[in-house]
Amino acid sequence: MFKHRRVRVTCVLVVGWIFFTVVEQRSGQTTWPASLLHALVWALAVSGTWWFAEMTQLGPRTARPVPPASATNSSRGPGVPVADLPGEDGDRREREPAAGRAREDGRRSA
Q1: What letter would DSSP give residue 106?
Q2: Is residue 9 within 8 Å of 47, Cβ to Cβ?
Q3: 72 in the Ramachandran plot: left (φ > 0), alpha (ψ -120 to 50) or beta?
């Protein structure tokens, strides 16, 4: 149920409205309708802050994946893929075409 953001924000709004209504009613000499209105303003402020905090979090879909240790070159530092470095893996691939890949002259290798 709490998987969706709108459900969580709505729950924060409702629970906050109830909580702030009780606090307003017990702390001051206000009527119930006035307490409900004042509490609604505070609950909207809290749920708006909650919504903003959830919207600005870095989620798992936007996070960068960490490359495995075998795909990095330790001499160049962490996080540098071997295939992106000139002259290391790229030259070997150009000299030895993989099986089934077309060569520069258009023929396929065995």
Answers
A1: S
A2: yes
A3: beta
Residue length of the chain: 110
The mean pLDDT of 28-53, rounded to a whole number, is 92
What confidence tens digit (pLDDT) does each residue in 5-25 have?
A: 889 999 999 999 999 999 999
Output the six-digit token pair for 90.
Answer: 């790229």
Task: Reply yes or no on whether the pLDDT at 33 is more than 80.
Answer: yes
For residue 95, the tally of other CB atoms under 10 A from its CB is 7
Which tokens go with 13?
A: 């709004």
Residue at token pair 């009527």? 31
Please state, in angstroms and rounded to a whole number, the distance separating the CA atoms of residues 44 and 38. 10
Task: Give the pLDDT confidence of 81-101 residue by residue, as tens digits.
Answer: 555 555 555 555 555 555 555
